[in-house]
Specification:
By secondary structure, the chain is an all-alpha fold. It contains 42 helices and no strands.
């Protein structure tokens, strides 16, 4: 119940010069003989028999409690004992709490005072903060208080997101001759930023108000503003604020830098984040663990794992110990790029360094194994997680359900679902979408529609993924009428189709040789502002090639590049096929090689600018082109592209080596393949296991035993997981015995379980 606000029990007064002259007024109001006797008894009991104090509780009133507080206000121990006993009793009303706030603030017991202030704010029923302010003002001098009590009240309101009361308290304090400090403004600024736009006053407006009040901002003020700008993606404004901060002589701290570094990373501007990190050291500011974790996270999100590891090494060299966040970030980065072996290496290193893997760690590993279609290994990791006493979360269960569903193993998926619900987790839209996908994979479209119906019954609204998955399923099984019905239904339900929805329908129409309708849909897609992706373009390019209209196919290829999409291996394979079928191999080569000539390509995009705009992971378009040639057995052309890269000082990356080695193995040029393999290893790259196993098989068939032994030894040497030791012994024994079939089987199993380096997905010529 809110406390009433009766007239004060003592004479109300504004600030007076002589505090002592006011004491007789106060005590003449409060110190009746009965109050004085009760308070003296209470003091004696608190000092000598505190457990007997409850015997007096029925005699206490708000007036006598106030008298106690004023009489003992300079005895910290006695005051705290009384507050601890009194604050849960009904006589301890809002006036008592205000007196207590003055006393606690004067003792600088800010945490205790803030807890009490928040209780007062929530219980007083004061929707403007005016009544609490008046009580604090009227009791200000009798408690020998300071203006810090108003800062405390503002901070408490702000912590509770009661921004209006906080702002009103600042205004009332100013109008009554008190000067709220930077602490008050910072607290309200932080609350406004946390409100994410729901507060009436913006952070910028409050900052301007603060400056007009001649309150100097400090580093925390600027940090709050910079965090606000960075959170909404306005990095440039954040940088302007950073510049103003330095101009005003306010030194940034590590939090300032970390906020900006994080913002740069989230925008993909990693190099600028690096620059800021380096500038910290130049200005005498040492990065902390968070600084390094933020940079590592940014690099991992871009797939720049080599650089992420270099930062990790630098961090350890400077005396920082990687924590759970560091390890999980790097592990997740390896999982995303499909390097399951390295993810397991990080997991082992994590345990070795005394950092306990969390549910997040195991969920990332389980997800990577599910993507590799290695469900046995995924379940092993799940059981390992349980044995460590870790409780799976909703994402863990959904990851496993998705893994089983994608392989059409619906019974196992339902078993995991039952375990999930038994553990107290309700299936989400994402969970249901995995079941929809699983049924569509098996061609059980009615079952997929049944899941949608069940979602409605459970009060869950299917999203664009739910509908697009079913539409894709109908298109796959050439039930286009039902696919378009589903598109209409989703729009009626208020769910707008996305690029995936349209691409699925376009592909369905193209497969049915209904190219005109596919083009209409392509135009509709562009008309509503949905940009086509690589898949959409490649689908239409393929359709034109099938129809024999190479000019339109080439036109779309050029448009694709103009729109900023780099053709992938599928696009190139489609074009090579189409052009070869019409005996236009020369034109195919000119088309594909124009990226490597000095002549311009559409929209004046040169080869160099295309390379610069590629992802930092690999020169995707180059890899795709080489892979396209390798898949068609055109190894001379693939070599020419590879050599042109080297001539232009673009060092071939891991993916390029994997593709071309694999291609030469298939083409029978094993000497070239093996030389490239040695060159790759010498350059510090670890070949993908598919490449290695293909090379070892080919060397074995050709009787190149010495080269084969070298490749096997190098592969085993690069494996650093303890759990792989038994498998390595099996490989070595069988190799000595000449049992190459067993060697290849063990290596294949090791790759599947992530026990060999580079066991995940990557570009290689096998498609």
């Amino acid at each position: 119940m809110p406390h009433p606000w009766p007239k004060p029990y003592y004479t109300s007064y504004l600030p007076v010069p002589d505090l002592l002259s006011s004491k007789p007024l106060l005590f003449s109001t409060l110190s009746s003989p009965s109050h004085a006797l009760l308070v003296d008894k209470a003091i004696t009991l608190l000092k000598f028999h505190p457990n007997h104090l409850d015997s007096l509780s029925s005699n206490f009133t708000p007036e006598s409690a106030s008298f106690f507080l004023l009489k003992s206000q300079f005895d910290q121990t006695l005051t705290l004992k009384f507050l601890n006993w009194a604050q849960n009793h009904p006589f301890f009303d809002s006036h008592c709490k205000c007196l207590s706030l003055h006393i606690l603030t004067r003792f600088k017991l800010y945490k205790t005072a803030q807890t009490l202030a928040q209780n007062l704010a929530l219980s007083a029923g004061d929707h403007t903060g005016s009544s609490i302010f008046q009580c604090l003002r009227d009791s200000y001098h009798v408690c020998n208080s300071t203006s810090a009590v108003f800062d405390l009240m503002v901070k408490s309101y702000s912590h509770l997101n009661m921004v209006d009361q906080a702002l009103n308290t600042i205004d009332l304090a100013k109008s009554n001759g008190f000067m709220p400090g930077v602490l008050s403004y910072n607290a309200v600024l932080d609350a406004i930023v946390r409100s994410r736009g729901s507060a009436k006053l913006s952070a910028e407006d409050l900052y301007r108000k603060m400056i007009r009040s001649r309150v100097s901002p400090n580093v925390y003020t600027y940090n709050i503003l910079i965090r606000r700008f960075c959170r909404v993606g306005e990095l440039e404004k954040g940088l302007d604020c950073f510049g103003e901060m330095e101009r005003n002589g306010c030194l940034p701290n590590v939090v300032t830098y970390n906020t900006l570094i994080d913002a740069y990373c989230k925008l993909g501007r990693i190099d600028e984040a690096f620059g800021l990190l380096k500038s910290m050291s130049r200005k005498g500011m040492q990065p902390n663990l968070i600084s390094y974790n933020v940079i590592i996270n940014g690099l991992c999100r871009q797939g720049r794992m080599k650089e992420a590891n270099e930062i990790l090494e630098d961090m350890v060299f400077k005396g920082f110990t990687p924590d759970e966040v560091t390890f999980n970030t790097i592990l997740n980065g390896y999982c995303k790029e499909g390097n399951f072996h390295q993810a397991l290496v990080v997991h082992a290193e994590m345990v070795r360094n005394g950092v306990s893997p969390s549910v997040v760690t195991y969920t990332a590993l389980i997800n990577s194994m599910c993507k590799a279609r290695n469900l046995n290994r995924a379940m092993e990791l799940f059981e390992q997680m349980l044995s460590r006493g870790l409780r799976p979360n909703e994402r863990t269960y959904t990851t496993l359900i998705d893994g089983f569903s994608r392989q059409g193993l619906m019974n196992q998926a339902f078993r995991v679902l039952n375990e999930m619900t038994a553990s107290g987790f309700l299936p989400s839209v994402v969970t249901y979408n995995t079941f929809i996908h699983g049924h569509c994979v098996l061609g059980k479209m009615e079952a997929a529609l049944g899941v949608v119906q069940e979602m409605f019954e459970k009060g869950l609204a299917p999203d664009v993924v739910s509908y697009s998955t079913i539409i894709s399923g109908f298109c796959r099984y050439q039930e286009l009428d039902r696919a378009f019905q589903m598109k209409q239904e989703m729009v009626e339900k208020g769910v707008l189709p996305d690029a995936v929805t349209y691409s699925s329908l376009i592909q369905g129409l193209c497969e049915m040789r209904r190219l005109s309708e596919a083009c209409d849909l392509f135009q509709e897609m562009s008309g509503i502002g949905l940009p086509p992706d690589e898949f959409t373009y490649t689908t239409l390019i393929n359709a034109y090639c099938v129809e024999g209209d190479l000019n339109k196919a080439l036109h779309l290829h050029d448009e694709m590049i103009r729109e900023g999409f780099l053709p992938d291996v599928v696009t190139y394979s489609v074009l090579i096929n189409g052009l070869n079928k019409q005996a236009r191999t020369r034109e195919a080569k000119r088309l594909l090689f124009k990226l490597f000539y000095e002549e311009s390509v559409p929209n004046d995009v040169t080869y160099d600018s295309l390379i610069e705009n590629c992802s930092n992971i690999e020169f995707k378009s180059v890899v795709a082109l080489i892979k396209g040639f390798c898949m068609k057995g055109l190894m001379r052309e693939a070599d020419r592209v590879f050599e042109s890269m080297v001539k232009r000082n673009h060092k071939p990356g891991e993916a390029v080596y994997n593709v071309i080695i694999h291609g030469h193995c298939r083409g029978g040029n094993l000497r070239k393949a093996f030389n490239l393999y040695k060159e790759m290893v010498h350059s510090g790259f670890v070949p993908h296991t598919v490449t290695v196993i293909t090379l070892i098989k080919a060397l074995f068939k050709e009787g190149m035993d010495e080269e084969m032994s070298e490749a096997i030894s190098e592969t085993l040497r690069s494996c650093r997981l303890n759990e792989a030791e038994l498998a390595k012994v099996l490989v070595e024994i069988n190799h000595k015995e000449g049992n190459m079939e067993a060697v290849l089987n063990v290596l294949t199993d090791m790759a599947k379980d992530g026990l060999l380096p580079n066991s995940g997905k990557t570009a290689y010529a096998g498609g």
